[in-house]
Fold this sequence. Notes:
Layout: H1 2-22, E1 75-80, E2 88-91, E3 97-100, E4 104-107, H2 113-124, E5 133-139, E6 143-149, E7 155-159, E8 162-163, E9 170-171, H3 175-181, E10 194-200, E11 203-210, H4 212-218, E12 232-235, H5 243-248, E13 262-268, E14 274-278, E15 282-285, E16 290-293, H6 310-316, E17 329-334, E18 340-345, H7 347-352, E19 367-370, H8 378-385, E20 394-400, E21 406-410, H9 416-422, E22 435-441, E23 447-453, E24 473-476, H10 480-491, H11 497-524, H12 528-627
Parallel strand pairs: 6-12, 13-19, 20-24
Antiparallel strand pairs: 1-2, 1-5, 3-4, 6-7, 8-9, 10-11, 10-12, 13-14, 15-16, 17-18, 17-19, 20-21, 22-23, 22-24
Helix pairs in contact: 1-12
Amino acid sequence: MKHTVQTATSLSLSALLVLSSSLPSIGQLPAIRTPAPSPNRPRVPPPPPAGSALPSGNFGSLTQEAAYTLGPGDRIALDIFGVPEFSKEYQVLVDGTLNLPIIRSVSIQGLTLQQAANVITKRYEPFINVPVVTVTLILARPLNIGVAGEVTRPGSYKINPVREGTGGGVKFPTLMEMLQLAKGVTSAGDMRNIQIRRPRRGGSEQVTTVDLQDFLDTGNLRQDITIRDGDTIFVPTASALNTQEVRQRASANFSADITKPIGVVIVGEVNRPGPYTVFASDLRSTNQQTELSFVSIDQQQGAVVGLPTITRALKIAGGITTEADIRRVQIRRRVRGGNEQTIMVNLWDLLQKGDATQDILLQEGDSVIIPTASIVDLTEVAQIGSTSFSPNAISINIVGEVIRPGALLVKPSTSLHQALLTAGSFNQLRAKKDKVELLRLNANGTVTRRTIDVDFAQGLNPNNNPTLRNNDVILVARSGYTRVADNINSLLQPITGVTGVINTVSGVFTGFQTTINAFQNLFLGGDFDRRNQLRQLREQRQDRQQQREDRELNRELQREDRQRQAEDRQRQAEDRLLQLEDRRLQLQDRQRQINVENQQLQIQQQQLLLQNQQQQQQQQQQQNTTTTP
Length: 629
């Protein structure tokens, strides 16, 4: 009787093993863990023989630069040596777990591939002899990366890692690629202390400092580290501006676009203070108008033409005046966080020492202040007047007894003697050659009138030969002999008959007209009608120029709006695709759960059938034992 029962039990276990081998999916079902393994239960697989080669852990193609941590959405390949029915691809669920055969849910959120392999190995040890588990990353999840600080477009960016070729590794974005995606680092950014903040499981975040300036200096690619999901890139504001480094990185592909027009404000000792738009172009300007001649900018070859520097901005504002203090030029810049940074510029060092670092690159929102010099050195005025940030010409008026009276365009450093010679010098028969009058319009609206002794033997000096300013008027009076002769000629005309009367009346009117002309020349600076026409023409040209600039600005704003709308629509479409993908994965998980439940029901039915068969066999044996005499 005992022998018969033991045989039946052995047959039942053998039948179960045969049934399990015929149904591979049964191996994926969770098993009831027993305190100690039964001696009749097979343990798979047996330990490999000594000296045999075990497969080494494959943790994907990720480098050890920064170990990749798993999270929801990752797709991995699980390989258990000797157990092919458990070795397949799995998707990390939204709660950061894997649903594995027998051991069910395993949390791998925030673990590296090696750590995940170790956790799964420990979970399978009660069921498999010496489990050797390998975890490989097949498809990485979308990365959510933040970029903040001194970049053109800070914000949160979602990146989809790509696989390089068939069977290749997963390529993750690098620091430079993310800075390019954020439209580059501004000129106020500190390239030597870029921070990468990376969250860690169960601890404080890890902060890594990167020196991209070292990459520009030496080409050290180790600074271009790989970015991971959840990283935040922060570009701080430089405490002190290094103009040499700013110019060096102006042509780098991770720097802000210098070809984009920027808005600045220029005030102080310039001919036309106010707000301006500075383009990366070649600038030619007078103090009446600004002509923009656009040129090509080839960043691929490393040649950058027309940087938006302070000297180009001064050129747009009509150039500096003769009273500007170029040693104490200020640039006031709003940095991230609302603070204001003041940058001192010494343009005199640029002229005398060739210090190109003083020609600082401007950025959006800068304010340029040109102070007034307390003492004007006339020897320096001549040098400054020939620079690129001075106006090409200033307008002056010479009225009275010169060979060519009227408005003249002369160089900014022109002296009084040079202006007189430009007008053909004095009228030798009529001019008062020892003295002239200089009328100057002040900034407060008043007019200063000076009498200057003319001595062409004198050099440049404020008393006898001052430097002229824009809109100065020089009055050359008649000599005493000329005034007496003109009066006698107008009053002592022979009066004979009607012709004499007419001539007398004509002479009176001529004298009256001469008086009016002299009054206009003296107080209005020349022909009043002609000056009005010239002023109207200048105003019309300025209005047309302003209209062209307004239209160009409006077109630029419209282009930027359209580009932003297109980017918003693209982001919305990407978010919608991600939502659909999440929904599809949830449906797949639900389908797998249903399949597992169906398989469990089938196993239970088969177990019931086996139990019924056993009971029937036992009853048959009992009947056979009973009927045996």
